[in-house]
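Field reference: sequence -> structure
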Amino acid sequence: MKPIFTVELPRTYCSQCNGSPKTIRPNWTRERSGFSVYFEAFVILLMKAMPVKKVANLINEHDTTLWPILHHYVEEAREREDFSSVQHVGFDETSRRKGHEYVSIFMDLEKRKVISVTEGKDQHTLKGFKQDLMVHGGHPDNIKEFSIDMSPAFIKGVEEQFPNASLTFDKFHVMKMINEALDETRRKEQRSNPELKNSRYSWIKNESNLNPKQKETLLKLKDQDLKTAKAYQLKVAFQRFLGEGYL
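Structure field:
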């Protein structure tokens, strides 16, 4: 059962408002909220750990009554944001639902904090971020660096909206491109060398993550005079350059 609070609120009459009655709003609830601020605080804590729909099922409420709570406190917190010190930004896109609907997420790399989310994944998202940055006290000229993937759209957006910022391509996407090139080399070479068939993961996975069969395949092929083996050695050399965590 849900607890329901019934309170008779004090009334007063305003002489400057044609004598209309005014009720005093209690400090334990927001106007037109329908919930106590303590309950809302509890709901927000749950929403940080699980989807809104799941929270609604857990507390026996409909999610349409909980979304306004989330929007209120997010908007309230956003109004207090200060981006004047933001200098290093990382961003990437992610799918927000089925049907290839994307949002781009921007992060202050120094504070390790998400600071902005815009719809889409093209160069126009940089324009949206620029506007949001300025609304919260930041300035495009303050941004020294963007860490991004190698998307031509993102590169173009940064160059147009933040001409003073340098570009850093993140390690994850660089390694992804190297692995794709390595596998492309393997697929072409396997036409003349059947031993390379079904060996994809032996080449692109880190050696420490290989299962016994994959490791056996790698040890058998990596020292042969193969273009794939040479591409693999280049990959390993680059991983050593990146550091121990990538080997």
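Note: DSSP finds nine helices and seven strands in the chain.
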